[in-house]
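Researcher: If convenient, please comment on what follows.
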Amino acid sequence: MTGRRPAPIALVLLVAAVLAGCSGQPLSEVVTPDPAASVEAPSSGDGSAPASEPTAAPGEETTAPTDAPGIPPKPADPSWKLAKSEATGTAGTKKLTYTAGWSSPDGVATSFALFGVTKCLRYAKETNGKPCLVKGMRIPKDVLVQIKEVPGDQRSTDVSYKSKKGSAPWDAVLVRAVNDAGESIFTILWSDVVCWKCSN
C-alpha cells in the first residue's frame, strides 16, 4: 500500500497566506480615525467667518463718530415738589402748581418734554397702595398726553392744574430729553398710587 506524499512546506505556507488574506478579520489592532468624524469650527454657511468674529464692510466704521451727540440720555435726579396752592373760587377746587426738576448733561438735549399718563397702569387689588407706574414698564402711546416742552438749557419747570379734592388730571408725570437724533426713554417725575375700588 502506497501512502500519500506530504505536501511541500512551501505550498503549505502559500495556502495559509491566501486564506488569511480572504478572512474578514483585521490583520492589525490599529484603528484609524474616521475623517468624517472630525470637528470643524462653525461657519455662517456661506463660507464667511463665524458669527463670533464680526468684520466691518468696506468703508464702514466700527464705532460711532465721536463728534455726534447721539440720542440724549434719560434725565436723572427727578423731583416733583408742590410750589403753590391757590383757591379758585369753586368749592373743593384748588389750583396746584408743582415744580418739576431733573438733571442732564449740558449741550446734548435741545428740549425736554413732559407727559402725563392718563391711566393707572398697575391698577389691581394686589398692587393697592403701590405706585401706578414703576421703572421699566412699557407705556402705551394712547395713555400719554404732552403737558409742555421746555428748552434744552432748562432743568426745571412749573406745572399747574386745577385739582378737585386733591386729585390730579394724570396718574403719573414723565419727562424725556429730545434732540435731532431722537428721544431718550422716560424718567418718572411723579406717580400716583393705586387706589383699588376707590370712588372718584
User: Anything to note?
Assistant: The chain has a mean pLDDT of 75. The radius of gyration is 40 Å. The beta strands are 76-87, 93-103, 111-117, 144-151, 156-164, 172-179, 182-183, 187-191.
